[in-house]
Amino acid sequence: MFALFLVMLTATTASAQGEEVPHGPGFGARALQALLDGIQFGVIIAITAVGLSLIFGTIHLINFAHGELVTIGATFAFFLNASPSGPGWQLIPAALAAVVFGALLGGAIERGVWRPLRARGTGLINLFIVTIGLSLLLRHVVLVLYGTRPGSYAQYDIQSVIDLGPVGITPRDLTVTLLSVLVLLGVAALLQKTRIGTAIRAVSVNRDLAEASGINVQRVVLVVWMLGGALAALGGVFFGLVEIVTWDMGFKLLLLMFAGIILGGLGSAYGAMVGSLVIGIVAQMSTLWFPVDLQYAWALLALIVVLLVRPQGILGRRERVG
After folding, report:
1. I need a surface site. Which of 98, 126, 204, 300 has the fewest CB within 10 A?
2. Phi and psi angles of residue 162, each rounded to the nearest 5 degrees, phi first
3. pLDDT digits (tens, 9 = 90+) for 30-48
4. What is this structure's pTM?
């Protein structure tokens, strides 16, 4: 009580003497900080969502198990880097190994599950239900192997903030953001400048015509699944690095991935990038006025508003009916 009395007396004396009481950052600085955080969050969502969008574009499958690939990438890197039973690798080689493992896992799922089901003529609704079952299976396998306790990587955990004028960012977050942008640019270059990228775009536009033109559609689909698995694993490592590694982190991110894909335009890789960036910015900017717990809700509200004005999404194309 005596200490509280001294604090109140000091504050009253400072006010009486006309001394300025320090205030927090203004609204403009907080808005810029939220915008920077939103860009960082958006590019991480975009990395994970691009593979999901390419899968939908090539075989029209809504893959609910994609979120688990994000979790597996993050937890695999955690095992190699920070787990007491792991080898104790540095985070960078652990992350690269996780990306390779994600690509191999994506290819194995395509060859072992989806290709046989497509060969038997399984309908899209049935395949969609299978993705839900596969998601539950993979999520609980991770739960058994990883456990419920959240974890963090052994490197780059506590860092000082770099002041960039009115905003601040840690070297870790700045590196993650720049690497995410470079990865997205690399994916764009792959789709536009390489033969496999041209084949992926051709299969996405018209699968039958692409096959009639001599494109090996099965090989293209396998590459898309491996690319999607690698990007999901990388996004999981980045998300676990800036946030925390948990057994259900990919499932929590899945709704935002779908929101970004739908907002940008179904089946469009570039639409997934733009839509995810918008979702991330809206989610972070909403915290300026509303509680943090509602940030995902406002991101989804932005999705609804955009689709009311432009049903095909930001970069989507109108489909002819009939």
Report:
1. 126
2. -90, 125
3. 788 888 888 898 999 999 9
4. 0.85
**Phi then psi for 243, rounded to 5 degrees?**
-115, -105
Asked whether 41 and 280 are in contact (CB, 8 A), the reply is yes
277-313 CB burial, b ≥16 within 10 A, e <16: bbbbbbbbbbbeeeeeeebbebbbebbeebeeeeeeb
**Model confidence over 208-261: pLDDT tens digits?**
888 888 888 899 999 999 999 999 999 999 999 988 899 988 888 888 888 888
Which residue type, as a one-letter code, is found at position 130?
Answer: V
Enumerate the H helices of the chain as residue ranges.
2-16, 27-59, 66-81, 91-109, 115-119, 124-146, 171-193, 195-205, 207-212, 217-242, 249-264, 269-285, 295-309
CA 313 and chain centroid, separation: 19
SS3 call for 166? coil
- Say if residue 261 is exposed, middle or buried (CB neighbours under 10 Å; 0-12, 13-18, 19+): buried
